[in-house]
Amino acid sequence: MGGPVPSAECPAIEMAGICKSFGHVRANHNVGFSVRSGEIHALLGENGSGKSTLMNILSGIYLPDAGSVAVRGRHVAFRSPRDAIAIGIGMVHQHFKLVESMTAMENIVAGTGRGLRLDRQQARERIRAFSRRFEMGLDPDKRVHDMSVGEKQTVEILKVLYRGADILVLDEPTAVLTPQEIGRLFGILRLMRQEGHSVIFISHKLNEVMSLCDRVTVLRRGETVGTVAVADCTTSRLVEMMVGRVVDLSIDRPRVQSSGLCLSVRNLSVRDEEGIRKLDDVSFDLHHGEILGVAGLAGSGQKELCETIAGLQAAEGGRIAFHGNDILGRSPRDIIRLGISMSFIPEDRLGMGLVAGMDIADNVMLKDYAFRPGLFLDRTAARKKAREIVSRLSIDTPGIFHPVRKLSGGNIQKVILGREIDLNPKLLITAYAVRGLDIHSSYTIYRLLNDQKVKGVAVLYIGEDLDVLLELCDRILVLFNGRVTGIVDARSSTKERIGLMMTGETPRAEGWQVPLPVPPLPASNACPVADRLLSPDSDRTMPAGPDGKGGGPC
Question: For residue range 9-20, what is the model confidence (pLDDT) as tens digits?
Fold first, then answer.
């Protein structure tokens, strides 16, 4: 890896003319990217803009088809990630790569090649020195399964520092952190910058980019749009560079007159297959024309809450009432047969939401036709519906017969959301609807959810971006270790208050509701229409509403 002797003015990273294609797909074309020493540099772009490909080239995972990479003035040609690590480049991935049963120290030293020659005490002291130096406060002997999400991320950062990295690539590092943990992470990164480390910060959260980073490079459709100093630009300007046009970044929160109670959850308790309690005595109400947000650290019970309501997971106890009738324990088939009154958009888009190998038309058709009688399907109508969804949601695809696995994350999410909305649901459950999506796709999803709210749909929105939860939702339910620590009015709450509740604290403040025991629901005869739908002897046909398109809420 020879090259010229670096000077004091040499960038830490200099990538020039980078090109990379996968078949007919051009991921990077003549990309230029430069990072200075002692700089936090953001890399922005929509999904499919080429960010991941560029960073995979920098970290030795991919070889470029053309172009050059220089590290501290020396031209390099990485053949593997080991080459990149050896020269001081470390990547911290969004999804942690830790062994839960091992200690922090064991995870950090694993793979360093020391084996039996490892001096454990020396390794422990070296880790403690890094921890003191960057004010991380990490115990090397703490086991990963006992750590918070923020502590696990600290272990990932220490792993690359321990291997000698002074150039760090952080991929969506704040996606699952509380505001307090984000502040702590930013403090660590600023200390690293003071010591001359270079940090490449990949994020969709522009407010974080503006508060932390020095410069920003924007990619669009695999090409470099430009590099700007944060001090000289605005979030609106960055979005315009990413998308290619001016985009409205405001999130509406329309006031809608509720048309009644849609969903009531009472004293819900759920255990997983290993007998670990995931939900503990959870109670809340959700009304038509309301978006109820759910906030919590990863693994606080959000997944189990969604899946239990949708009939995908059994409960240990409690009650879930839809339009006054208990649906707990009913199968997804029975719940869908309520007149397609409940739609569930899962966290796992391709695992649970869509069939990856099928095209858009067949995926759109799946749920609508799954329970219709007869041997023959009306594919003409299904294809027409698929075309309408693609057009209405501006799904970027060659056509409705394109396999969904070849779509970007944002377009996959639009297919799911478009299909569910087309079913005219009364209840819409979304789990991390914008996770990993770019700004433009995210704001499209927010607008679609607000459109459903205005139509009187009840929306349960599981999210991780507290800024969005506070802007989009009417109320926010906070979970900690499967318990409700409070329900707050989104208009009067703050990120800091919700962040404390996410860690188990229950600060008393205006707009905060104590999750007291709730009296039992009335008998199921509160809604005769739903009663008939849930009766095993019914024909499960929803009576037509005033618009002739199916029954409305009781």
Answer: 689 999 999 999
Q: What are 19-37's pLDDT values in tens digits?
A: 999 888 889 999 999 999 9
* Beta-bridge mates of residue 265: 284, 320
Classify strands 13-22 and 66-71 as parallel, antiparallel or unpaired. Answer: antiparallel
Phi-psi category of 362—alpha, beta or left, where left has phi over 0 and alpha has psi -120 to 50?
A: alpha
CA distance 179 to 378: 50
Residue 322: φ, ψ to 5°: -110, 115
Give the strand pairing for 317-322 and 325-326: antiparallel
Alpha-carbon distances of 146 from 115, 155, 277, rounded to whole Å: 25, 13, 16
409 phi and psi angles, rounded to 5 deg: -60, -40
Encoded tokens for 482: 């499967």
Give the per-residue pLDDT at 347.
Answer: 56
H-helix segments, 393-465: 409-422, 439-454
Report yes or no: 201 and 213 within 8 Å, Cβ to Cβ: yes
Structure pTM? 0.71
CB neighbours (10 Å) of residue 7? Answer: 8
Q: Are 486 and 478 in contact (CB under 8 A)?
A: yes
> Containing H/E element for 430?
strand 427-431
> What is the phi/psi pair of residue 208, to 5°?
-70, -40
- For residues 531-539, average pLDDT: 36
**Above pLDDT 90, what percent of the chain?**
42
The residue assigned the tokens 């759109």 is 364
Query: What pLDDT does 75 receive?
Result: 93
* Residues 216-247 pLDDT 10s: 999 998 999 999 999 999 998 999 999 888 87
3-state SS class at 133: helix
**Whether 295 contacts 490, CB under 8 Å:** no
Q: Alpha-carbon distance 124 to 141, whole Å?
A: 8
Question: What spatial distance separates the first Cα and last Cα of the chain, rounded to whole Å?
Answer: 72
**CA gap 280, 468 in Å, rounded:** 26
Nearest residue to 364 (alpha-carbon basis) of 408, 445, 423, 444: 423
Whether 407 contacts 415, CB under 8 Å: yes
Strand, coil or helix: what is 343? strand
Count of C-beta atoms within a 10 Å radius of residue 441:
24
Task: Please state, in angstroms and rounded to a whole number, the distance separating the CA atoms of residues 290 and 264.
Answer: 13
Give the Cα separation of 32 and 383 in Å (integer): 42
DSSP state, residue 359? B
> What are the E-state strand segments in 470-534?
475-480, 483-489, 512-513
Phi, psi of 128 (to 5 degrees): -65, -35
Cβ distance 486 to 470 under 8 Å?
Answer: no
Q: Which residues touch 175 (CB under 8 Å, ≥6 apart)?
A: 94, 435, 464
